[in-house]
Amino acid sequence: MAHALALVLSGGGGERLSVLTSERAVSAVPFGGKYRIIDFVLSNCCHSGIDQVGVLTQHAPTSLHDHIGAGRPWDLDRRAGGVLILQPYLTRSHAGWYRGTADAIAQNWDAIEERRPARVLVLSGDHVYRMDYRALLRTHEQRSAALTLAVARVPPEDSRRFGMARLDRDGRVLSLVEKPERADTPFASMGIYLFEFEVLGEILRPRPVDLVMDVVRPMLESGERVYAHEFSGYWEDVGTVGSYYRSNRELLSPQPGMVLHDVRWPILTRDEERPPVLVTEGAMIEDSLVANGCRVSGTVRRSVLFPGVRVERGAEVVDSVVMADTVIGPEARADRAILDKYVRVGEGAVVGHGETPRGGEWAWLEGLTLVGKDVEIPAGVRIGRASVVGIGAGPHDFAAVELAAGTLLPSRSWLTDVP
Amino acid sequence: MTSSRYAFILAGGVGSRLCLLSERRAKPAVPFGGKYRIIDFTLSNCVNSGIYDIGVLTQYRPTSLNQHIGTGRPWDLDRSRGGVQILQPSLGSVESDWYQGTGDAIYRNLMHLRRRRTEQVLVLSGDHVYEMDYNVLYAFHYAKQAAVTVAVTEVPEESISSFGIIETDRAGRVVGFEEKPRQARSRLASMGVYLFDHPSLHRWLMEDAACTDSKHDFGKDVLPRLVARGESVYAYRFQHYWQDVGTLDSYYQANRAFLSDQPPLDLNNPDWVIHTQSADRPPVRIEHGAHAERSLIANGCRVAGRVTRSVLFPGVTVPRGAVVRDSIVMHDTVVGRDAVVDQAIVDKQVEIGDGAVVGSGEGSTANRSCPDHLMSGLTLVGKGAQIPEGITIGRNARIGAFVTEVDFTGDVPSGGVVDGPESMH
Fold it and tell me: What's the whole-model pTM score?
């Protein structure tokens, strides 16, 4: 794509994803049975012909850096261009955590300038969608815009989740209102911005903090040519437990909005070499995605299993998302649960037990039970719904056989765990 | 490290007993185990043993193998120094010709060792399924101060006539070597894994090349001669799983062995990963009403029908109402609605029409064209074949690669043959 450099904003900590993101960036959260969330954007770049990509990281970036590496899976391991990780850094004159999205870009302007792109495409690493950015570029060129932002139609009740863009007939953006209770426009900004390089460079000079408040809004106010490009495909911001769960589940529907099977637009990821799925006698799998390396002897329904998950005899996994190398022991059960990697669920244990608690405090969990990485749930323990089990919790952390619905078990700090 | 290690992998095998499966590809390139090619085991053994300098010798139909190996990425063999090199027969040098035998193939590539500081040369076969740490072989070789060490494995009495059979003394020194004997006093078969001292190998191959009555083959000529004249030839006894998937029946059984609760190799072992070239495929999608049991199913497959005791390679589609039973189905094959695949080996990119039956009735008639290889009840469908709707294909039948609807005159009886377009060669 004509001299565009993509910047993927992946610094977010994602408080709302709880234990899934306490030790990794939202962009690095596993998704869809073998991917990480950022794979969708990186694959979009690859298939749209963008071969210069900067990934801006800040919160718990290790797992993201590991995943991206030299960028091989996306053909971004190049001599010229390729992928560049842009993390906060120190210099003699400056110490800089990123204060906001615009600040993150401004702090890396030297590195961006060196690549001399004609345009800068700012993307979020937390969204699941398939988009050919060349269509966005065409709109941008036709309108001779200084900035083109991608918009999607959303139902009126969702307007308070998004920045809502009011457009004129030509698609020129008249105003952008952040998360209004009620909006007079169906168009939500997708957090995808295509800037003319010179324009962005100029506006970043006074060191603005936030991309929307301090860059896009002032551009609108000063009458710059800001246009919208309407995108009509599937698009999901997976920033909350509920939306993360629903978009995983959506992949299981008969006609999923997000097509993973399209050979012309494969979702590229760093793949581990694992053998095919082994399904043994007495196994029952339905309406599910099951990745290589899994071994299923029990029952799996309406669930997503990542590589290397084992579902032992008599075990049941229902309406759940189970990440890599987690073991569901014999006769154990996971029901409306999200289990992170390397969790061991002991024999006969239950994750997601009994009634969903009503009311306020746990509403954000939508009845789901979250289990952090490396947790060992002892045999026979029952964990009530809408509970959160922190990273690394072990047998000694489970005081009782039954955890009431809505329990929060804190993460273990491995630093204080003397081996 | 004292010196660098180098391995030759012989991958020119014709694999004629695999019939259609190796008609258009070399035996090492035959798909195996739901996502691998046979050569993946040997290549992975090399890199897992720390050998990163490898020459792969090809001759018979190398395209599929070359494509598979590529620059060697999956095995971390895309390196600046060493890595993997495809060594095909070539014209241009004084002594160029097709490889006559395994010894000749190495002889013609000795020049690749010239610039390498390697004290031993490992010679491997790309035809076998096994996991072996070659470091143990090197250690044995050093301990015995052998000139050449041959890895051997015990085979059943009835199959000695398919292997090079080795007789040893108590110390493990080889005292007899007979290629494919009718009967023998030993049941130790050569695995086609040889560790040579570099100078000895060089000398012996020069010598063999000058021999006019030699077939220039390690098993037939070179090793028996060395043993006969009392060279220091030792046998290393390998105690683990090793499978020569040389026939359709052994290929079928070996694949099926991986469906058991105790598979012969742990393909999930993170310390000994079998690497392969795999395309980006989404996880297996198992839809509503599907039933899958006792099967291996690779990423990219979509299952809405019934799959039992079968191996599905990446991208296979089994829609609602379809049944795949006791079968091996390779990449991107599409089974039609209400079609049945029973005791069949179906190659890649086959389209099976709605309601068709592949593998039906009694299996008493051997195949008309290859009665020796296709007679135990398996039905074989070649790559890219298109099987018309509603047609029934009997057991021991052979459906050629790339056949289309027009090649069928009706149902195919047991032992029947449908030939497709002639291969260009």
Answer: 0.92
